[in-house]
Each structure stands twice: as structure tokens, then as C-alpha cells.
Amino acid sequence: MDKMMDNPWFIKILALLLAVLLYSSVPHTGKKITDVNVPGEQSTATITNIPVNVYYDTENLVVSGIPNKVEITLKGPLTHIQSAKALKNFEVYVDLTKATVGKQKVKLKVRNLSDKLKATVKPSSVTVSVQEKITKEFRVEAEFNKNQIDEGYSAGEPTVGPNKVKITGAKSVIDRIFYVKATLGGKNNLKETFTEKADIQVLDKDLNKLNVKVEPETVEITIPVRSNSKTVPINIVRNGTAPEGVTIESIEIDETEATIYGSESVLNNTEKVRVEVDLSKITDNTTLTLPVIISNGITKVTPQTVKAKVVVKKQEEKNVSDVPVHIKGLSDEYEATITDPENQMIDLLVNGPASAVTRVKPEDFNVFIDLSDLEEGDHEVDIHVEGPSALKWKPTKSSAKITINKNNA
Known about the structure:
There is one protein chain. The protein is mainly beta. The protein folds into four domains: 42-132, RNA Polymerase Alpha Subunit, Chain A, domain 2; 140-227, Beta Complex (RNA Polymerase Alpha Subunit, Chain A, domain 2), CATH 2.170.120; 229-314, YbbR-like domain (RNA Polymerase Alpha Subunit, Chain A, domain 2, Beta Complex), CATH 2.170.120; 316-406, Beta Complex (RNA Polymerase Alpha Subunit, Chain A, domain 2), CATH 2.170.120.30. It has helices at 2-6, 8-25, 78-87, 171-174, 264-268, 354-357, and strands at 42-55, 61-64, 69-77, 91-95, 102-107, 109-111, 118-122, 125-139, 141-143, 153-155, 159-161, 164-170, 179-183, 194-203, 213-215, 218-223, 225-227, 229-239, 246-253, 257-262, 273-278, 286-291, 298-302, 305-328, 334-340, 345-353, 366-370, 377-382, 384-386, 392-395, 399-406.
């Protein structure tokens, strides 16, 4: 043996045999030598805003109470969680394909998720209401703000096209419908008819919006806008006094009516407009261009001006002498004597149109003093004059002195 151990070839052959023996003693799994079997890392993650799909008979039923989105918590290997968060290739759903009409509690389920992950949905279950779906036709009411109409204009009855819509929803919701409105907004200071599209709103009696389907969703609304107007007479207003010696015989205007514009309330309270003639500036026949004067609230008037033809008569003066002064109102138990004027007559300075002045006589005037309720004694009383309406006059005396005594008869 010592000789054999000293031989180098013997040692080499022995080492080879030992190596083969060791190799054959190691079990083989078919894996590469670089493969390492390490347990996977476990993790937890929450994903929000996951949509919920609902499966039911959409033709005949309406389902409410299902949340639009939920929160889901995943637990499992980190790599699987990361993949689920990135791809979101799973589904949260509620199966109501065999549901009956009424309220019921249902569970939110998850599918298409890796079997290595455990999912928890929040909320895990909900109470849903399954109702019969119906469709009903409603008339659409147009609504707009009248403050959009410009001052002096008014809006007529709006028209809606189409004026009816079909509304689909749960029977209990359809029964709550109180208003179906199409509301216009936006434009202001409107002066002419306009048409605009408007969305339809479906409301209950408390003006809460109802969750229904409307067909069509929009309608066209036409609002007729017209100018508020009214025809009224033009009145002639005389201001001031004509100069001495001038009498205004007539004033005529070329337009006797005017059209006024404004709000309905203002028009209802306006019955006329006017032109004003300043008589103090009239000395002869003339034609004036005068503005038509309107009251507050009237926004426009047609015509704005008129022509006024003024015809005058030059006046003449005449002194009418010896017009007797009569006594009126004296009680039968008294007698009166006029002491001033002594002759119981006065003179009148009369002026007016020449044709009337030349014909006037003392008999055309009634000059008197009123002694009603006066007793014995001396009194001074006013002298009253009545005469032709076309004339003006001025007495030489404005008062008379009298003495009243008891009647001795």
C-alpha cells in the first residue's frame, strides 16, 4: 500500500473516483444551478374609485342604491398587487339578473382577479331598490327671466318645440314628477324675438331634481318680443298771458295723437301727452315747432315734435261810460243809499277783439253790489262786474260806499 500511495497516478485515479461518488450522491431537480427558491413577499394595498358594474334587466327594471364607485383592498404577493393596480383588469360587480321587485341587500363581488390575491370591497354589501321601469309623456313648460327683456318691450307667450317629451324611470319617481321645465338663460336687453336651445329639468314639488331619462334632452324655445306702445291724444297747454292788446283766437296742431312706448304699467297709467304754448311770446299769427312732452317712464314718443298754428286777434280799447250800479241781497226791512259814486254809475275800460269792442254798450254789463247780511250803518263794499266773455274790463272804481237804514214803511 505504501508503494501504491507513493505512485502519483494512483492518487489521481482515487481522486476522480471520489469526485464521481460525491456527484452521484447529490439529488437533481432539473433546475439550473442559479435557481433559488425564496418565499414571495406579502403586501397590502387599497385602490379607490373602482367603478361598480350592475347586471339586471335594463329593459323592464330600474335599480337604485348601487354606489358608482367603491374602494377595494388587496392582499397578497407584492408583484401581483402591483400588476392589479396598474392594469385594473378585475371587475367589481353586483348581480341582479334574478332579482325581484322591491328592496333587498346584495353583496358586491370581485372577479377576474389573480387567485393569489384576496380582495375586500368597501362597502361589502348595499341595500338596493329594484323597481318597475315605466315611460310617460309630459308637456314641457318654458321658463325665462322677464328681466332679460329690455325696458319698453314685453315678451309674449313662449313656444316650445317639441312641446312634449318622454320620461323614463322608476314608477315611484315618475309619480313624483311635478315640473318639467326648459329654462333659458344668458342674454339680456332683448328687443326682438329669439329662439334658443334649453336643457330639460325634471323636478318634484319641492324643486328637487329627479333621476330619470328624458328624450329628447333639449328643446328649442322661441320667445316673441314686441315693443310696448299706445296711442294717446296730444293736449295743448297754454302757459302765461298774452301781451297787452293780443287775444289768442285759436291754436291748432298738425298732429292730434301720438304713439308712446314704455312698460305696460307706465302705459296703463298714461292717457295723454302734451305740447306747451308760451302765450307771453305771441304777438301775431305764427306757426311754432313744439316738442311733445312725455311723463316719466315713457321711453319713446312718435312724433317727437308737432307744428302749432297760432291765430291771434289784435285787441282794441273802449271806455264805456255811465254803467249803473245795482243793489242785490238787501233785506226788505232795510233801504240803502249809495253815497259813492254819487250818481250810482261807474265807467268801464273795455278791451278785446275789435269786432266785439265796437259793438259793446252799457247794457251789456251787469254792475252790482251785494248787501246780503249787512245791517244798519255805513259800509264799503266791492263792486262786481259781469259782461261778455270775449272782453276784458277794468272799472274806474272797485268799491262803493253805502248807508243802510231801517225801512220806515
